[in-house]
Design a protein that fits this description.
mainly alpha; 120 residues; elongated
């Protein structure tokens, strides 16, 4: 009886950790979307000295940030439910795919923002 209680307690802790991880990914997605709004705001506030290339880069950064933020929410939600199922089945599945995905997203956005800043 006591072992069942300990096992249930472990599952509760794992489920709560899974929820915290999910919320961290959602905050990351919101930050990615924020980068798009920031790029647009900075670009608009820069004034009329913006050329065609700068305009296109600002729009590209904004749209890509929005898409990547939304995609991050979808991937995070999928990962949350996959981990929930894994916890209930008492098996571990590594989250390496979402880590690789987010690394690629951050590098890609950093390159885009760098190109934009160098062109201004």
């Amino acid at each position: 009886m006591k072992d069942d209680k300990k096992e249930e307690q472990k599952l509760i802790q794992q489920h709560l950790a899974n929820e915290r991880t999910y919320l961290a990914w959602i905050r990351t997605a919101i930050a990615l979307i924020g980068i798009g709004f920031l790029a647009t705001t900075l670009h608009v506030n820069a004034g009329s000295q913006n050329g065609f290339l700068e305009n296109q880069l600002a729009v590209l950064i904004s749209v890509i940030s929005l898409i990547l933020g939304a995609l991050t929410m979808v991937v995070a939600t999928s990962n949350y439910f996959r981990m929930r199922r894994s916890i209930n089945e008492k098996r571990f599945v590594s989250s390496h795919k979402i880590i690789l995905f987010m690394t690629g997203v951050v590098v890609f956005l950093a390159v885009l923002v760098s190109v934009y800043l160098l062109s201004v």
